[in-house]
Amino acid sequence: MSARDKYHLNLKDALKKDGWEITHDPYIIETQGVNYQVDLGAEKIIAAQKGKEKIAIEIKSFLKDSTVSEFHTALGQFLNYKLGLEEVEKDRILYLAIPNLAYNRIKKLGILMKSINRYEVRLIVFNIQEKTIISWIK
Question: Most buried of 35, 57, 58, 73, CB within 10 angstroms?
Answer without folding.
Answer: 57
